[in-house]
Amino acid sequence: MDDRQFRTAMGKFATGVTVIATEVEGDIHGMTANAFMSVSLDPKLVVVSIGEKAKILNKIKESKIFTVNILAADQQELSMIFAGQLKEHKEVVFERLDGKPVLAGAVAQVACEVSAEHVEGDHTLFIGRVTDIHLEDKEPLVFYSGKYRSLVAEQPVTI
């Protein structure tokens, strides 16, 4: 199989869209990612997968903290900003959760301290110990087959 076939197959898994953020010496750094999952309930752990070429990789290694911001359906522009898809500079305002930078309006904000890191292939997996969570009652931004999507609620069937 070639790289394109592998990427296409992986794109058939519908995911939420996140922005991973960290802070080093007062500067906030962020990256759009969909490689995120929960690992453990006790202790509460999550994992993010960061490519070796990503600028944020060494920032997380240095700071030992990160946040996962699960984007809401109305936050596609933020996803595009942190994916480097928008050419014009847009100012992004961050809030704080447990002293860590988070995006206002996200469906979920998850603050983490790095508990372990594992290099696998061309990515580093950061295991994060969750230190705080903030939730909003919103619809998530969804990514499937290379496109942004939104959820559509099923209509009840009446007989």
Can you give the mean pLDDT?
Answer: 93
What is the string of SSEs from the N terminus onward? HEEEEEHEHEEEEEE
- How far is the first residue's CA from the last residue's CA? 48 Å
CATH classification, class level: Mainly Beta
**Low-confidence region ranges:** none
In terms of structural class, how would the helical and strand content be classed? mainly beta
CATH fold category name? Pnp Oxidase, Chain A
Proportion of helical residues: 10-25%
How many separate helices? Answer: 3
**CATH level-4 homologous superfamily:** Electron Transport, Fmn-binding Protein, Chain A
Q: What's the overall geometry?
A: globular
- Number of extended strands: 12
In terms of quaternary structure, what is this?
Answer: single chain
Count of domain modules: 1
Strands ordered across the widest β-sheet: 3-2-6-9-10-5-4
Relative strand content: over 45%
Largest sheet: 7 strands, antiparallel
Cα Rg:
16 Å
CATH architecture: Roll
In short:
By secondary structure, this protein is mainly beta.
Can you put this structure into words, describing what you see?
Keywords: Oxidoreductase. GO terms for molecular function: FMN binding; riboflavin reductase (NADPH) activity. By secondary structure, this protein is mainly beta. It has a single domain (3-150), classed as Electron Transport, Fmn-binding Protein, Chain A (Pnp Oxidase, Chain A). The chain is 14% helix and 48% strand. It has three helices and twelve strands, in the order αβββββαβαββββββ. The protein has helices spanning 3-10, 56-63, 76-82; strands at 15-16, 18-24, 27-33, 36-40, 45-51, 65-70, 94-97, 100-103, 108-120, 123-135, 141-144, 147-150. The strands form three sheets. It has a seven-stranded antiparallel β-sheet. Strands 1-11-12 form a three-stranded antiparallel β-sheet, with no helix packed on it.
